[in-house]
Amino acid sequence: MKKKCVVCGAQFEGYHNSKYCSGDCKSKRFGEKECPVCGAVFYPKSKGVKYCSQQCGSEAAAKTMKEKGIYEKKAREQTYLGYTTCNYCGKEFKIKDARHYKYCSIQCANKNKDHKTTSCKYCGEDIKYYFKKPDYCSRKCRRRDNPEECSYCGKEFVSWNGKLYCSEECKKQEYNKRKRESYESVDYKVEQTCVNCGSKYKCMKSVASHRKYCDECQLEVKEERRRDQRRRRRARLNNVKVDKFDSSEIFERDGWVCQLCGKPVDKELKYPHLMSATIDHVTPISKGGSHTKRNVQLAHFICNSIKSDKGTDQLRLFG
Known about the structure:
Elements: E1 2-4, E2 11-13, H1 23-27, E3 33-34, E4 41-42, H2 54-67, E5 82-85, E6 92-95, H3 106-111, E7 116-119, E8 126-129, H4 139-145, E9 148-149, E10 156-157, H5 168-185, E11 189-193, E12 200-204, H6 215-237, H7 247-253, E13 277-281, E14 296-300, H8 301-307
Antiparallel strand pairs: 1-2, 3-4, 5-6, 7-8, 9-10, 11-12, 13-14
């Protein structure tokens, strides 16, 4: 949009609210003025400016105040009652009023203060005091001489900033203890029987419908599931067929009898016991065997390890 400059009248491209073609024209928008103090010609930044600088403005104000007599200060008449001697440095100084002065300055007064001396109860360091007698030289000595007792283990320690525990470990143990007590105090648990070992255990009502195992058996089941996941992953990496099944299904199918040595497998033994139950591939995955129910069987851990990848091509007749 073409606009006309308000100051110089030149044509320029600008927005709908533009008035000046440049910064120089904008600074000259109030016209030229002559400073009444120094007589210099200048361009004011606003309408009410009369002087070219702050110094000229200050000189004009001082001149006006002097003409009005504001600057004429009357000499203050100071009366002195006499002389006295400083108790610290011995210097003579004038007394301004009727009060009794002992020192010529604050510095002399502070240096010559009458103080008493005592010793710290903890470290034995000398302490200077003027009014109330202190027991300790610092807060550190007070805390060290009066240790706190740990809220968890009962051990004495120096408490800083209101700490209740001697270490982070005690703090963590106390937190777990309170959490456990609050968990046990609330009556929202139900009693169930473990499917694996037959023992009684308590669990929350929200998970009672789909939980089958106690805490110990739950950990064992999770570990067995991880091993099954690793077997399936190894089979997928070898590009062989993979079926999803649970190890317990194979163990029940084979009647808890080792298919390599023919001896029974004890259910109570857990991995990595040498006689514990493991999944063995009839044809090893490394030789093209699949991870399916037809290609797996129950075996002792030691039997499976001895066999290694020396498998046969004979498949089981189970579906």
